[in-house]
Write a structure and sequence with these properties.
Layout lengths: L12 H14 L12 H8 L3 H14 L2 E4 L3 E4 L3 H24 L4 H13 L7 H14 L10
Antiparallel strand pairs: 1-2
Helix pairs in contact: 1-3, 2-3, 4-6, 5-6
Length: 151
């Protein structure tokens, strides 16, 4: 399991670990019901305090990404409903951002280009086609024509 920590990042290490693991679960890298490394093993692998990993695992469990089995360890939960919810939230944020950009005079092509560039920086891989369709739908939803039409 490859997790890179950024020690220059202002966020606490446990938040970085939480975010990286959650992202891996959402992308399907960590499959449902697969066991996570033990707290100790993960701490050794990342050269950090086990309490930091324990805190990250607790946060992941609180958010519904993982579940614990007493004496067995932590396992990846079914994230399909969580993923659908987060996709819907992301789409709503994209739509609102596109509306704001249109109100400020950005044209449709500029909005699509900005979002596409933003998505290119992430691991979109197999989801690029889905992302492209969502972008087109969001652009249609906000009625962006030439930047002259405002809400």
């Amino acid at each position: 399991m490859l997790i890179e920590l950024d020690y220059k990042d202002r966020r606490p290490i446990y938040e970085q670990v939480t975010e990286k693991l959650a992202s891996m679960m959402m992308l399907g890298v960590l499959e449902e019901n697969s066991q996570l490394p033990s707290v100790r093993a993960m701490a050794v692998a990342l050269s950090i305090n086990p309490n930091t990993i324990q805190r990250a695992y607790a946060e992941l469990e609180r958010q519904g990404y993982i579940y614990s089995v007493k004496g067995k360890g932590s396992f990846v939960a079914d994230t399909s409903k969580l993923r659908q919810f987060r996709l819907k939230e992301a789409r709503n944020r994209l739509t609102e951002a596109a509306r704001e950009a249109a109100r400020l005079g950005m044209v449709k092509d500029e909005i699509i280009k900005a979002v596409t560039e933003g998505a290119a920086g992430e691991n979109c891989g197999e989801n690029q086609e889905e992302t492209g369709k969502a972008l087109e739908t969001a652009a249609r939803d906000v009625n962006v024509t030439g930047g002259n039409e405002h809400d």
